[in-house]
Amino acid sequence: MNALFHRWLAATTRHRVWVLLTILAFTVIATVGRINPEWIIGGEEPTSGPQGSTSSAASSTALPPDVSPLRVDNADVVLIVDSKSFFTPAGSRAIRDVVDSIEALSMVQDIFWLDEVPPINLFSLQNPIFPTGTASARQFEDAREQALANPLIRGQLLSEDAETLLLLIHLDWLFVESDEQCTELIRQTAQQVDDQYEDVDMSFLVTGRVPGYITFEKSRGENQKRYQVIGYSMILIMAVILFRGFRAVLIVSAAPILGVFWTLGFLCFFDLQENPFNDIVLPVLISLVGFTDGVHLMVEIRRRRANGDSPRTAAAEALQKVGLACFLTSLTTAIGLGALSLAHHEVVREFGWSCVIGVVLTFFAVILVIPLLCSTRLGNRLEKGHGEGLVDRSLGRIEVVIDWVLQRRKAMTFCAIGLTLTLVGISLTLRPDERVQNALPTNSEVTRAIAHLDDKLNGMETAEVRIHWTDKIDNDSEEILNLLRDVHVILDKEELIGHPVSLKSFIDALPGDPDAAQRMSMAELLPPALKRVFITPERRMAKVTFRVRDLGIATYGPVFERIETALRNRDMEQTQFNLSLQGDAVWRWRNLQQIVVDLTYSLGSASIVIFLVLTIAYRSIRIGLIALVPNFFPLAFTGTWLVATGHSLELAMVCAFTVCLGIAVDDTIHFLTRYREESDDKSDEDAIRSAFVSTGTALIMTTVILTVGFSTVIMSGMREQRIFATMGCLTISSALLGDLLFLPPMLAYFRKRRKATTDENQEIKNDS
């Protein structure tokens, strides 16, 4: 198998025309993918038949009443207005002018705010929340009290101190022509109106579903260009410094650059190009993985060129010497990253498959491009600067470290195992968590708006308790109202739950005895559009909504558990009812533990498969087990850092751990491959020293380059990307320490013990 693989590698240096055609074919396919992948895969044909029957079936179902519920929690844009002067003559005029000016914008369909809230009593007169500008101070104070007494206003549209007001804006998408219309234009329009009122001071923040998406996409686009340019520039600068030869850097860089281009083009055929991790993390990751193998290959080619080999011979010999290690590193990296495809989260699964595609394509780019370019004019005088670099000159000093750890092989071996197990134990104390703000730029307007709403209105996000009942319960039954009251009691006990509101809230606000037996019948006095927000009779469903702050789902875990326990107890008492806790925050809480499960599955499966690959490749279970320690040490070290810095386990970290495992194993494989070759005719210690001399330059150079490459992303405005990059730097740096301090003494200790046992058995046989 190895011989066949080596012959294939050698053939790539002999048949340069076929290699060039292969490169061109991959490039053309990737280009088509980026322009229009349907030229190759074709478009989807419209389906018929079942859809027609479905639509006819749907049309036969009973339609709900022709009443649309108020749109109180599904706004496209939320404008947060802060002022201490709302309930004053000038403040009333100013906020009305703000609303009128925004509604006059072509892309605004309507605005729902506290002045649009219908009267609770259907038969009462509609009085505006804000009196006219000629009203007295007493009338404005009464209006303020009435507003705060309305369940749909207090804590929903107006803060309890009456200083924060929400305008829920719904857009007409036929007239939306740019992102700025949904964010900056709305804020600027409001600010221009406020500037006309010198005695009214209002401030504005824009947030909501649409601005949040725009902010995320804008930051992603800016980071994609900025940090790729910065990252690749830093990599090139570091490579020139370390190689001391521009031609070598140009050749090594060409392979990962082409690999990234191929990857981004091929992803379009699988509809994976929109994944948020694929914009910044994937290109940097793929380029660094390709650059790592490229450095090892280039160091060997330059060494052989310095010894007098011809360009083609040097490339062929280097491929045979390093090619198997490059293949194993790509295979294990693909396994480590591919383990993410086992995750339940769609973004993580797609990122895992994208990484596998990228690693495979980049491996072919390295194997095909670097030997081809080295045998052209570009490869002339490639050996210039070999042995003169900073790493080459310092390698002799680092050999002292190898000698030191080999002399203390037993102590270092048990230290490595003990320290790794200790750090793993600390890392296992990480607990999962997730916040909405983590996916947004730290200092963005949307992030500041979320924090402001947490403080003023107990959060922007809502959740709800849904109550379903059987057909044995009438839709106007008092049992429904009593159950709603019980749910309110359950929610009111939780300090982190903000402003529960339901049909019960409005019935209680109606005049009359709140304890009357037939109170539920008074729901008929409520406006139908208001009532249907909280009860849907044809679905036999009512709900109690409440606000949730963006404090992290782990903080709300015990709260949701207590609520669900109380709801289950009510379920047992009320057999005709079913109570459930719903909402995005609740969904994330229920799936939060899945983050830990995904991490365990991905790391566990990747570790097992990597162990099997190394065991088969090196034909030694012992080497496979030894390799686990220096590769788990950097992960455990990074996990311990997360614990020490007070971080929780988040989605980006699940990806980072698996990615780092795939990268950390690369240098170990290069070291072990050279060690196995050298151990055929040398003692264990001499083989270890020789393997270090052969691979040490590349090990240190790749660590420096990878760390610099990842460190550029630390400047990103996206918190998840900063954490990902920080974990990458820590893992790659600590992986070098593991390969230098732990791997050599463990190889010497366990291999020596096996040799000693063999010698003892031979002596016993001779004596007998």
Q: Main beta sheet: strand number and arrangement? A: 5 strands, antiparallel
CATH superfamily membership of the largest domain, which one?
A: Multidrug efflux transporter AcrB transmembrane domain
The count of domains is: 3
CATH topology descriptor of the largest domain: Multidrug efflux transporter AcrB transmembrane fold
Plain-language structure description:
The structure is a single chain. The protein is of the alpha+beta class. It folds into three domains: 2-36 and 213-433 and 590-755, Multidrug efflux transporter AcrB transmembrane domain (Multidrug efflux transporter AcrB transmembrane fold, Up-down Bundle), CATH 1.20.1640; 77-212, Multidrug efflux transporter AcrB pore domain (Alpha-Beta Plaits), CATH 3.30.70.1430; 452-589, 2-Layer Sandwich (Alpha-Beta Plaits). The protein has helices at residues 2-14, 16-35, 38-41, 50-60, 89-103, 137-149, 179-182, 184-195, 209-243, 246-267, 281-306, 311-338, 346-374, 390-407, 409-427, 445-457, 478-492, 503-509, 528-531, 553-573, 584-618, 621-644, 651-678, 684-711, 719-767, and strands at residues 77-82, 108-112, 164-171, 203-207, 461-469, 497-501, 535-536, 541-548, 577-582. Strands 5, 6, 7, 8 and 9 form a five-stranded antiparallel sheet that branches. Strands 2-3-1-4 form a four-stranded antiparallel sheet, sandwiched between helices. Helix 12 (311-338) packs antiparallel against helix 13 (346-374) and helix 14 (390-407) packs across helix 25 (719-767).
